[in-house]
Amino acid sequence: PCCPDRPDVMARYTVPVEAAREACPVLLSNGNLVAEGLLPEGRHYAKWEDPFPKPSYLFALVAGKLVALERRVTTMSGREVLLQVWVEAGNLDRVDHAMDSLVHSMRWDEETFGLELDLDRFMIVAVADFNMGAMENKGLNIFNTKFILAKPDTATDLDYENVESVVAHEYFHNWTGNRVTCRDWFQLTLKEGLTVFRDQQFSADMLARAAGPEGAASARAVKRIDDVRVLRAAQFPEDAGPMAHPIRPDSYQEINNFYTATVYEKGAEVIRMLHTLLGQEGFRNGMDLYFSYFDGQAVTCDDFVEVMSEANNGFDLDQFMRWYEQAGTPRVRASGTWNAADGSYTLTLAQSTPATPGQHDKLPLVIPVAVGLIGPDGRDLPL
Question: What are the two backbone dihedrals, phi and then psi, of residue 25, each rounded to the nearest 5 degrees?
Fold first, then answer.
């Protein structure tokens, strides 16, 4: 039967793989290994079964000469699972940090969102000629070696940070992207904006943990500054130029043009604003309801925002949806006045968004603003 290559067409895959043992001693695909064995004439086979329906873009098959670093861990429900990082033989001494990052990602997703690895094993394959940075193929993530290999005498601090961040990002897609995927590619930010936000939060928590209780707040602030620097350097110019588009674009000529800083980084900022508006508990409640409603389905950005509203007593997010429809970077002007007579301070905010191609007139956006007052001694004043 025909299986159109679109994300809302999903199927369960059973994949038998057969090859010459000498040329391809390792045979991998999505899901769980259910059978393997030898065949005549120097050949062998492996049979993989993925119990979860997925679109074709998440299918992967790997055959070749690879070696693996393995680790067995126990999930929050008590299941023992196998983690494997597969590389070419000469690179095995450079994957410990990637494995540690994978374990940390698993634990963080369990603790923060109650999300557990759903397969008997999770595999990463890293090869030098993979044409993207990394890809979240179900249970068999494919990476360029740039985001897996690291050891102290050849890698910088930034390399280590990138390995941790990208490994986490692709692992987090197991739920935000794979178990719940997007109905069509116009909804790409549904999985990418949300998952970028999740990997940013993860990295901030890892830095805070390393810094200890006294330095945790500063560590999180440094991570936030780094994220905003990327946003200003890559996404702000995109929003101000001829290629400006909403985080959910209306049309495209080439699908590869969708993989932009707007869809990813600005999309993550939109999710962050939701998190700010709803609070950590409200956001978690929304995520729980999202998976409860849509596990195994292909959905839209509207579905996500609507379920966030429902999980928070009907919190009004109608105007918030404009972030998904309008391009451009809004500008906020703030002015304050102090009335010494009655001891009151008045803060006035005004917003405007410059015209962008195809969108001359802009509507006001929901922009959460944190406010605080500082006294002459540098201490916070009660509000």
Answer: -70, -20
163 and 199 belong to one structural domain: no
CB environment 152-182: b (16+ within 10 A), e (fewer): eeeeeeebbbbbbbbbbbbbbbbbbbbbbbb
Please tell me the total number of residues recorded for the chain in this structure.
Answer: 383
User: Which of residues 299, 328, 357 is at a domain's end?
Assistant: 328
What lies within 8 Å, CB to CB, of 303 at 6+ separation is 290, 293, 294
The percent helix, strand, coil of the chain (3-state, each to 5) is: 40, 25, 35
Amino acid at 362: K
Paired tokens of 131: 């044409």
Tens of pLDDT along 74-105?
999 999 999 999 999 999 999 999 999 999 99
Does residue 347 lie in a domain region?
no
Q: How far apart are CA 208 and CA 230, in angstroms?
A: 20
Q: Is residue 64 part of a domain?
A: yes
Distance, C-alpha 285 to centroid of its chain: 19
Q: Judge if 149 and 272 occupy the same domain.
A: no
The string of pLDDT tens digits covering residues 6-60 is 999 999 999 999 999 999 999 999 999 999 999 999 999 999 999 999 999 999 9
Split into its structural domains, the chain has a count of 2
In this structure, are residues 180 and 288 in contact, taking their beta carbons and an 8 Å threshold?
no
Report the catalytic residues.
Answer: 170
Q: Are residues 209 and 159 in the same domain?
A: no
SS3 140: strand
Domain containing 268: what range? Answer: 185-328
Is residue 290 a contact partner of residue 304, using CB atoms and an 8 Å limit? yes
Backbone CA torsion sign across 281, 324, 266, 101 = positive
